[in-house]
Amino acid sequence: MNSRETVLAALNHRETDKIPIDFGGTSTSSIHVISYLNLLKYLNMAHLEVKMFDPMMQLAMVNDEVKDYFKVDTEKLYRPTPKFGIAIYNGWKKYQESNGISYLVPADYSPLDAGDYFEIRNNGILIAKRPKNALYFDNYFHPYSDHENPGDLDSVKLTNYSTQEVDFISESLGSLYGKTSRAIIFSIKGSFLETPCDLRGYNKFFMDLALNKKYSEKLLDILLENYIASFEKISEIIKGKVDVIKLTDDFGANNGMLISPKTYRDIIKPRQKILFDTIKKNSNIKILLHSCGSIREILPDLIEIGLDAINPIQANTSGMNPEILKKEFGKDITFWGGTIIPQELMDLDNTGITSLLLERIEKLRKGGGFVYSFTHNFQPDIDSEKIELFFKIPGNFSKRG
To answer: What does the buried/exposed string (b/e) look like for 166-203 if buried means 16 or more CB atoms within 10 Å of the residue's CB?
Structure first.
């Protein structure tokens, strides 16, 4: 089997000789640009060109040479505008950190030095801020924060992909599909919790869900309409070439869900089902959902509405023991990750990491339904040696009768 076939076999719950590996296939299985520079130096690949494509999480594009070295089976089809309205189709430019480290960034990426912060502005509006001692930009602008009632949404007009963005997706996919045998993953708009929080502000949208349900439901209906229109605009382009659609919506915290299961089932689930049905109706593409935290309570709901795979399986949160989840849901959903959390990578020595990973892989791989990945992106405080070790361990396994 080639890489694409191996990933699809896992998604169809078939065990294969090689455990499929994801690195850089999504924006939640990737690597911070500083961590990536460190890794390239460690691997004697410092000559490779480094591009930071995601301005929010400061993520690097993973080069083919690194994917080949780690025997990676996934390929990311990059979104034309990953975050904050900053496009990646207008070219690249050199960016230099204050410590002299340099790499390439989108031509439109020009953070402003504002003393203790870096700022990203769009048409003079402050969109995002990053403390100078922090790693990420946080969303700062909430355009619907002054809304009071459902009528305030009557004038809202959301845009979907522009002609330039559609052309970028089409050209990028045409080039990528012709040169790779890896499974291609594409992230689309489809959030029913994170995006409303970005639009309203977290405090206000959580209050909406509890006390202003007419507003929250109307906002979600507007988003759903936009998500479907956006998907349908590119569905013919990606059909037969993209293998996995990835959606992102963090529903969980460490000790439970961010919203009640009832709120999820009453307000979000019906709309999520419509979106899932639209994707499935127009293609054979598998659906992967990224949701951090403790979401055990709604896994049966997600399976019911057609979810194929869940990422990352955050093992240190309540109810998310990978072994137990595999026993309960392993026949119905693929676990994309569930191997190790960043704290374990930092705290354990190489022997401890190896032992833990071998144990978890043995339990998760049986019967297929498992893609090997880590719990969220590698950060600069993860040693490159441990990153290399992480990717070597699946090679200890082969299909067993």
So the answer is: bebbeebbeebbeebebbbbbbbbbbbbbbbbbbbbee
Q: Which residues, including other chains, have CB under 8 Å from residue 68's CB and lie 6 or more apart?
A: none
CA distances from 261 to 8, 18, 269, 282, 295 (A): 30, 37, 10, 29, 9
Place of tokens 């200890």: 396
Q: Return the structure tokens found at 281.
A: 């109706």
Count of CB atoms within 10 A of residue 6's CB? 22
Q: Nearest 5°: phi and psi at 281?
A: -65, -35
The residue assigned the tokens 């690195």 is 23
Contacts of 359 (CB under 8 A, 6+ apart): none
Give me 43's structure tokens: 């691997």
Mean predicted confidence (pLDDT) in 271-296: 94
In DSSP notation, 124-192 reads TEEEEEEETTSSS-EE---TTTT--SGGGGTT-------HHHHHHHHHHHHHHHHH--SEEEEE----S
Task: Look at residue 270 and tell me whether its pLDDT is greater than 70.
Answer: yes
Q: What distance in Å separates the CA atoms of residue 317 and residue 353, rounded to the nearest whole number? A: 19
Q: What is the pLDDT of residues 21-34, one digit of tens each?
A: 999 999 999 999 99
Rounded to whole angstroms, how far apart are CA atoms 254 and 48? Answer: 38
Cα 369 to Cα 328: distance, rounded to the nearest angstrom: 13
Between CA 246 and CA 286 the distance in angstroms is: 9
d(CA 258, CA 306): 22
Helix, strand or coil, per DSSP, at residue 9:
helix
Does the pLDDT at position 400 exceed 70? no
Residue spans per domain, the chain: 3-50+62-90+144-396
Summarised one tens digit per residue, pLDDT across range 135-171 is 999 999 999 999 999 999 999 999 999 999 999 999 9
Model confidence, pTM: 0.96
pLDDT bucket at 296, cuts 50 / 70 / 90: very high
Architecture of domain 3-50+62-90+144-396: Alpha-Beta Barrel (3.20)
pLDDT given for residue 338 in this prediction = 84
